Amino acid sequence: MTEFKAVCQERGAVLIVSLVILLVLTLIGIAGMNTSIMQERMAVNAQNSNRAFQTAESSASALMEQLMGNDLSLLRESMQSGNDLSSEVAFTVDAGNGVAGTYQARYLGQTIISSGSSLDASESSTLLNGYRYELRGTATMAGTGASSTVFKGIEYY
Predict the structure, then answer these.
(1) DSSP secondary-structure letter at 21?
(2) Which residue, among 37, 140, 20, 29, has the nearest Cα to 91 in the 3D structure?
(3) Residues 48, 141 contacting (CB under 8 angstroms)
(4) Fewer Cβ close by (within 10 Å): the C or N end of the chain?
(5) Is the separation of the CB atoms in 135 and 105 below 8 Å?
(6) pLDDT score at 34
(7) Are the CB atoms for 108 and 36 separated by under 8 Å?
(8) Crossing angle of helices 13-68/73-80, nearest 10°?
(9) Helix, strand, or coil here: 42?
(10) pLDDT of res. 4
């Protein structure tokens, strides 16, 4: 009969190697989780920034629609104010998610078109006066820090 004496000579090297491999796999798993959490945060921030930009565009478009409807009160107000700015008009886009926007007009100055241009409405007049404005639409999302501002320039004759 043969006896096995090799059992007493083992020192646990396999146990130590397997624990080191398990530790490395755990660290790789934790790094992967951190990466996915960071990517999720970046995606949410991009989505919030895009939503704020779209709301700012809507704000400026709301002012354009007001002007196209012949409501020129903000343009007149900006011309008559000391700092060339109208008052800010606030409106809520999505109250449930805290998305709000404002719009405002700023008077930039007068332009003069000389006679002979295609915009000259009166043949007896030598000058046609126009006015330049900057329309500003802003938006913020409560609780996210996302905000955006859009500027549009117009000339009114």
Answers:
(1) H
(2) 140
(3) yes
(4) N
(5) yes
(6) 86
(7) no
(8) 90
(9) helix
(10) 57
Least Cα distance to 155 among 109, 102, 92, 91 occurs for 109
Nearest-angstrom CA–CA distance, 149 and 102: 9
Q: Is residue 125 part of a domain?
A: yes
Average pLDDT of the chain, as a whole number: 86
Q: What pLDDT, on a 0 to 100 scale, did the predictor assign at position 157?
A: 77
- Domains held by the chain: number: 1
Token code pair at residue 126: 């030598």
* Other CB atoms within 10 A of residue 98 CB: 13
Q: How far apart are CA 109 and CA 102, in angstroms?
A: 23
- Calpha distance 138→105 (Å, rounded): 12
5 domain residue, yes or no: no
Task: Name the DSSP class of 43.
Answer: H
Position 77 confidence tier, pLDDT thresholds 50, 70, 90: very high
Residue 47 lies in a domain: yes
Angstrom distance (rounded) from CA 151 to CA 75: 15
Residue 14: phi, psi to the nearest 5? -65, -40
Look up the domain containing 100 and give its range: 10-156
Residue with tokens 């020192």: 11
**What amino acid occupies position 116?**
G
